[in-house]
Amino acid sequence: MFKEKRHLKMAVMIAAVICAALVTAGCADAATNEANAASTPKTKASQITLSWSGDTKTTQDVNWKGSGSTMYVKYAAAKNYDQDGKWTSFTKGKKTTTLEGHYCRYSARITKLTADTKYYYIIGAGSKWTAKRTFTTGIESGDFSFMSLGDVQFVDRNEDYAAWGDDIAAAYKREPGIKFSLMTGDLINVSTEIRDWNAFFNNAMPVFSRIPMMTTSGNHETPVVPSVYLKMMRTGRRGLKRKYIRLITETVILFR
């Protein structure tokens, strides 16, 4: 009888441990259950870039190309993820379709972040997700450096965009403390040419999926269909124009 009671007690203890582990796992995964349960997209997110449309210390915009289905960004502070390997939050991407329906661009704005903090993020839905990438929120105060670029364009699309991508990658490797880039327009030759946008984003992604890329339109983006630029760069949000002008103004002051 004593032996049977001891075995029963051990079985109850084991069951309690298993249940506790399941509950803990459930709580940890609850923050991203919606993203995990969503339909798996046909293709992984690509042409990923970062930008800002809010407070640089507490927000981060993540932009990407997708196949049209619902997609999400899962993220976590790097120091926490390094300890437990868990994604703590998610944000649903907002989709816009352009170029006669042949291109789907997404944007997700992450909020309530901590200043000067490194985060990991992935993009996807269901069982299909991108590789883990990083971004770092803006600092509270102090000096910083940024990259200024303009007039990408090309003579040979594939060759020249690839060379541009190599140049910005080399610059970022040489100056890893760069906080963001400021692009002054003419990112492409023709705003309605999907091959231009694909070449631009494909070569921008290695660097600008890690630091924000702030852009303004040039004469090559706007003469035919200005709305294409707004959809591609996701700069059409209400109130962004004023915030962006403020960013430019504050940046110019740094040179005086």
Report the major sheet.
5 strands, antiparallel
Q: Roughly what fraction of the amino acids lie in strands?
A: 25-35%
Mean pLDDT: 79
The tally of structural domains comes to 1
Total helix count?
7
In the CATH hierarchy, the architecture is: Sandwich
CATH class: Mainly Beta
Overall helicity: 25-40%
Labels describing this entry:
alpha+beta; 256 residues; 5-stranded antiparallel beta sheet; disordered N terminus; 4-stranded antiparallel beta sheet; single chain; Immunoglobulin-like; disordered C terminus; globular
Characterise this structure.
By secondary structure, the chain is α+β, with helices and mostly antiparallel strands. The protein has one domain: Purple acid phosphatase-like, N-terminal (Immunoglobulin-like, Sandwich). It has helices at residues 2-30, 33-37, 78-84, 157-174, 194-208, 226-233, 240-253; strands at 46-51, 60-66, 72-77, 89-92, 94-98, 103-110, 118-125, 128-129, 133-136, 145-149, 178-183, 213-215. β11, α5 (194-208) and β12 form a beta-alpha-beta unit. The termini are far apart.
Briefly characterize the structure:
This protein has 256 residues and is of the alpha+beta class. The chain is built from seven helices and twelve strands.
Topology:
Layout: H1 2-30, H2 33-37, E1 46-51, E2 60-66, E3 72-77, H3 78-84, E4 89-92, E5 94-98, E6 103-110, E7 118-125, E8 128-129, E9 133-136, E10 145-149, H4 157-174, E11 178-183, H5 194-208, E12 213-215, H6 226-233, H7 240-253
Helix pairs in contact: 4-5
